[in-house]
């Protein structure tokens, strides 16, 4: 007697609201979009909260791939899973990540890098498995951003670009760990008793300060042209604040005077390649390390005199602070739940989804650190 197998219902197309960018610098438009079911090794997520990152602003102002849905710092609940997914089930709480981790490629297995060869930074606005989008409006494709596209009530991501978290962790807080707050001290391996200078005291810069404090740095100097940021930064570990507009001497000379010859570590957190050179000059000879974490809007080329490197200085770049997203993020979430790291303090605004353009304006005007956008219930 032949037995019939149970019929497994496949997920349907979902129609939901999403904030669609139709062109560079144009206000986002809340649209009804179709979200296709997850394909092999993908999951579809009901987005609960998403925070706005400076990188979203930079891409929105300058990138050529439109229409698209921005957003990459998000938390949500798994709605459905694609073929081959065993790590997640419906109802799981997840944190999205803009670079994934396959765990098998040369980069993932090296122990030296977090730039996965399979699920590294996605630039084409399509999904990995078939080079197509999961969003559409009246049959017209709407492109993804940074493998996440969280400015949508539902989104589809590769299972390697999500991390399962406990259901008791507050989703409206830990969404910040998807990018900015995590991208801090790991890449530099800051040593106890060292001196650190940070150019730019936004979310990334403050997270560097927090990490430097945790690592035992004795001098943590913050540099920013906004005087209001100096006082706020003290809560994150800044021991001295410099506003370049208040100094007659070049800022690198001021830092050398404060540190007795240059900082052990300097971090460029602005997205200004000219400032990378200044950060290098602010480091000490012999072992000074400069880490660039900002994403430049213009002039992506870095220039520096070769003599800087002959004297022993090093320039290093980083995505996501060098953390392996799936391997390392659970430990950061655990540190947050134990109150070992600050996260809530970066949130300066909470807005409903329909006010997403207000969030963009606040960040462009320098009036917020992180704005958390709460999706519709």
From TrEMBL:
- Say yes or no: keyword Chloroplast present: no
Required co-factor(s) are: Zn(2+)
Pfam families hit by this protein: ADH_N (PF08240), ADH_zinc_N (PF00107)
Q: Give the Alcohol dehydrogenase-like C-terminal domain ranges.
A: 204-335
Keywords (alphabetical) are: Metal-binding, Oxidoreductase, Zinc
**Secretion signal: which residues?**
none
Stretches assigned to the Alcohol dehydrogenase-like N-terminal domain:
41-165
**Homology family:** Belongs to the zinc-containing alcohol dehydrogenase family.
Q: Subunit notes for this chain?
A: Homodimer.
- Protein name, per record: Alcohol dehydrogenase-like 6 isoform X2
The organism encoding this protein is: Prunus mume (Japanese apricot)
Quick one: which gene encodes this? Answer: LOC103338849
């Amino acid at each position: 007697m032949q037995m019939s197998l149970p019929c497994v219902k496949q997920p349907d197309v979902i129609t939901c609201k999403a904030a669609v960018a139709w062109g560079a610098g144009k206000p986002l438009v809340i649209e009804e979009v179709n979200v296709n079911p997850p394909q092999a090794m993908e999951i579809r997520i009901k987005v609960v909260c998403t925070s706005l990152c400076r990188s979203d602003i930079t891409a929105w102002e300058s990138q050529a791939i439109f229409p698209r849905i921005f957003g990459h710092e998000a938390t949500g609940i798994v709605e459905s899973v694609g073929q081959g997914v065993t790590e997640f089930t419906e109802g799981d709480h997840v944190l999205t990540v803009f670079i994934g981790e396959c765990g098998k490629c040369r980069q993932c297995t090296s122990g030296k890098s977090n730039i996965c060869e399979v699920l590294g930074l996605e630039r084409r606005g399509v999904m990995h498995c078939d080079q197509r989008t999961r969003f559409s409006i009246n049959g017209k494709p709407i492109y993804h951003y940074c493998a996440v596209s969280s400015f949508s009530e539902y989104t589809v991501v590769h299972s390697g670009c999500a991390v399962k978290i406990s259901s008791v962790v507050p989703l409206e807080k830990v969404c910040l760990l998807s990018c900015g707050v995590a991208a801090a001290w790991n890449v530099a391996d800051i040593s106890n008793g060292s001196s650190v200078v940070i150019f730019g005291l936004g979310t990334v810069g403050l997270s560097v300060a927090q990490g430097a404090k945790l690592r035992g740095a004795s001098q943590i100097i913050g540099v920013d042209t906004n005087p209001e940021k100096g006082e706020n930064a003290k809560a994150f570990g800044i021991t001295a604040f410099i506003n370049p507009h208040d100094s007659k001497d070049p800022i690198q000379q001021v830092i050398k005077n404060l540190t007795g010859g240059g900082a052990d570590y300097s971090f460029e957190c602005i997205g200004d390649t000219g400032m990378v050179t200044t950060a290098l000059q602010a480091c000490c000879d012999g072992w000074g390390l400069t880490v660039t974490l900002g994403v430049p809007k213009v002039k992506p080329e870095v220039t520096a005199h070769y003599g800087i490197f002959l004297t022993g200085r090093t320039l290093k770049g980083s995505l996501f602070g060098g953390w392996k997203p799936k391997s390392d993020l659970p430990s950061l979430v655990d540190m947050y739940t134990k109150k070992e790291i600050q996260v809530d303090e970066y949130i300066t605004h909470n807005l409903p989804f329909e006010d997403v353009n207000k969030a963009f304006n606040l960040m462009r005007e320098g009036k917020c650190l992180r704005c958390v956008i709460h999706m519709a219930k």
